[in-house]
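Standup notes, protein team

Yesterday: finished cleaning the Triticum urartu set.
Today: Proteasome subunit alpha type-3 structure.
Blockers: none.

Input for Proteasome subunit alpha type-3:
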Amino acid sequence: MMKLWMILCRTIVGIKCKDGVVLGVEKLITSKMILAGSNRRLHSVHRNSGLAVAGLAADGRQVVSRAKSEAANYEKVYGEPMPVKELADRVASYVHLCTLYWWLRPFGCGVILGGYDRDGPQLYMIEPSGLSYKYFGAALGKGRQAAKTEIEKLKLSELTCREGIVEVAKIIYGVHDEAKDKSFELELSWVCDESNRQHEKVPNDLLEQAKAAAQAALEEMDAD
């Protein structure tokens, strides 16, 4: 049965390109008084990895906090950045823990984890149940089915992250329902060769170019 949090939360998208990972978030603007950039849904976990959160923002912050703690402790003990697979497994175990005891409730959020380690770019999705899978492309939230359909059309093995941010923007603009939903803010981040394999926000000039391309594609689709 479809979970309520999945129906209500906004869409997040992650894709693994040939040179890195791109994460994108559709963040609704609930009030015109809210400062742009507040209540972020994209978080850096460590230098080489980041999380995109779908669902309850407060629950997401707890997951992010645990991920940061796990990554910092691993580097302190082993003297190197935590492999993305190990980080995904530990975060998934923590999330699963909250489904086992009656005094805890399951997390009302899901996350997509992207990173770059010695095995190259990695992308994982962690569900509230504690399930964790490795993906070429993943989506969570209200528009996840439509987003997955669009991701499957992409040749991800041939796509660079510069091209990937445009495709992610197109997908998020495409699944956004202007008739029912309020305006939204697009958040994009990447970890790739161009960012020195560190998780960073996409530079503003590239973000604006991706928005313009997505809006143009949407207008062209409406015209047809």
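Follow-up from PR in the comments: The first helix runs from residue 4 to 8.
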